[in-house]
Structure formats: C-alpha cells, structure tokens
C-alpha cells in the first residue's frame, strides 16, 4: 500500500532554532512549576497551613520538591544552552545556505507578536530584528542600490508598507504595491517584532529610516506610507519621534493611508485583560493569572491604542484601568487617510462599536472617540468605509487598491 505524502514540516526549521526551542522549553518548565507551586500553596493557606518565604512558595518536603524541579531544570537548561551556543557559528553557516521559507516567517511573526518582548529580553534567537525589505531581501546601506535596481526602476518616491500584529511583510497581497508602483513609487516593506511596545518600535523605525534614506540612490522627493492595523500606531510613534528629533525623513512624508488601524484600541485585548481580573479574583486561580499575562507588550498596547512612551512607562500593563493616554493628534502637514472596514452590510450602533472588521471597531479605525478632545481629525473626504469586509481582507482587497489609487494618484495632496 502506497503511503500518503507527508508534509515535511522540519524543512522549514533552521539549525539555530534548536537553541531557541531549548530556551523556551526551559523557561516554560520553570513557569509551569511556579504556577503549580502557587496553586498548591494557595490551597494549603486556606486550610491554615504556613507558607514559605514568599506567599506563593511551599515549605517542608513539598517546597523541597519544587526547589529540586526548578534547580534541575535550570541546570539542564544552562548546560544545553551553553552547548548549543558553542555550535552557533556552525548553525549560522548552515542557515546561510538555506533560504527562509514563508511558512517559517509566518510562524516567527506570530510567535513574536504573542511573546516578542520576552524573546527579546531573554536573548532568544527567535526574536525578530527590525528590517526594511524589498523583494524579500533585507535592505542595507551597502546593498541598497543593487537590491532596488533588481526589483525595478528606482524612483525618488519610496512607498513604505507596514504590517500589523503577528504578521510580516510577505502577507501583503502585492496588488496594492503593484498598482501604486505604476504611479512612480518604489515599494519597500518593514518587518518588525510586533510584541514590543509600539513606542519602542516607533523609535527603532525612526532611526532605521533615517539611516537608510540617507543612502537612497536618488534625491528623495517624497516618502508615502500604507499601514495596516498596528502598523499605523508604529508609524505615528515614529513620526512623532522623528519630528521631535528633526530627522530629515519626517519632512518628506506627504501621505499616509491607514488601513484598519485601531487608533483608540481594540476590544479583543480588553477581553484578555478581563481574563487577568477573573483569574486573579480567587486564591486558587490567582497563580494561573500568569497564563493571561503571557501576552506581549505589543498586544497590551492595543487595549487603548498606545503610541507614546509616557502611555505605558511606570504602569502595570496587566492592571485593568481607564484610558490614560496622552492625546497625540495626527501629524501636521501630512495628508492622512483612513480606510475602515466592517463585516456588517450597513452602519449601526452594534456594528460600529462591537462588530467592526472582526478585530477593530469601526469608530476606532475612523479615529472617533466618545471624548471630543481625543478624536483624530480625519477630513471627511479622507475617510472611507468598506462593508462586508474583514480585517485581513484589507491587505489585498481590490476595493482597497482602488481607494488607494484615488487617494495617491494626484500629484499633490488635496
């Protein structure tokens, strides 16, 4: 009997992924042991039994068992990481001979979106670095003219595409870039760790654009942007930082098209915040609240659409609290457009506030807020709504392409 074809999932892995996986396994084991000990001790405390040095720590033989588990896990993890670290140069030579697959890139993007801040803080090899790309290749100051020339005519108008949470640049459909390239643009794409705070990514983007655009092969005329979801928040943060630092590229931005950007947050993260509250409401479930706190800083920033350092610094991001953002208006002197989507066939109270495009409420994408002082001033002519359209469809829907052409085709912003 002929065996069915198998999907060789391992072909998407890189040799360096071994060390990354070992680190995650060690950290996961430690976290599970801490949660188990916390639940164990919570039960004993309700019976009046004393605890260890910390409230969540067991004592006696039970505490010794948990200490042994943690000690052995740490020892094995350290030894394994040391051995794999020594093999890292060999891993790098092997990996350089194998192109990255779209499947692996998608998994890395999702993993970084969920826990990218943890990966960065722990030095895990799976943590993504921010890069600008063209035709799948990373752009550097050294290879910039060569890579751009191979992709097509190099123009004086780069067009920057920025993806959203848990995504990468390969997930843009390509239709938008192809259509806008006919207007004289040179499309370039950003790939970044969406698990970091929005303002951290904004700062990195501001510096990266300053570095790369100084090496652009032609004198620049403009830098226009098409941004999806979280990408819009990252760009607003980068522009604020660039303008405050007088970086030259900020003055080149003429147009920004926001596609489904949660300017005032998304209810999905707020639901996750309620999980923290509910799990922390009883002594038995309180140790399990750590499960809800696995979500990244990038995700928690989406609760209200945080853009600036001051919006999150010095605050417990897992604590349920009202919107305390410092209002950041749309950048002055730039034509800002917003395209919002809804799964509903028409507008209505439920469709606008809850349904939206499945992830982002319609009012949030339009920059509207119950407090007038927080509203973003998108001119009526620079707003558009797509009905019966989901959040991810904005990446390649023909109707979106046509709207972008209508906004970007004039020689000067209206």
Structural overview:
Strands 2-1-4-3-5-6-7-8 form an 8-stranded mixed beta sheet, sandwiched between helices. The chain is globular, with a radius of gyration of 24 Å. It is of the alpha/beta class and 414 residues long. Helices cover 43% and strands 10% of the residues. It has 2 domains: 83 residues; 315 residues, Rossmann fold, CATH 3.40.50. The chain starts with 16 loop residues before the first helix and ends in a 6-residue tail after the last helix. Keywords: Hydrolase. It comes from Paucibacter sediminis.
Concise summary:
By secondary structure, the chain is an alpha/beta fold. It has helices spanning 17-46, 60-86, 88-96, 102-121, 144-151, 175-181, 198-213, 230-244, 267-279, 289-292, 297-301, 349-355, 362-365, 398-408; strands at 131-134, 137-138, 158-162, 186-191, 224-228, 255-259, 335-342, 383-387. The protein has 14 helices and eight strands.
CATH class of the largest domain: Alpha Beta
Report, as a whole number of angstroms, the end-to-end distance.
68 Å
Radius of gyration: 24 Å
Structural class of the helix and strand makeup? Answer: alpha/beta
The geometry reads as globular
Low-confidence stretches: 30-44, 272-289
How are the SSEs placed, and which strands pair?
Blueprint: H1 17-46, H2 60-86, H3 88-96, H4 102-121, E1 131-134, E2 137-138, H5 144-151, E3 158-162, H6 175-181, E4 186-191, H7 198-213, E5 224-228, H8 230-244, E6 255-259, H9 267-279, H10 289-292, H11 297-301, E7 335-342, H12 349-355, H13 362-365, E8 383-387, H14 398-408
Parallel strand pairs: 3-4, 3-5, 5-6, 6-7, 7-8
Antiparallel strand pairs: 1-2, 1-4
Protein name: Alpha/beta hydrolase
Organism: Paucibacter sediminis
GO molecular function: hydrolase activity
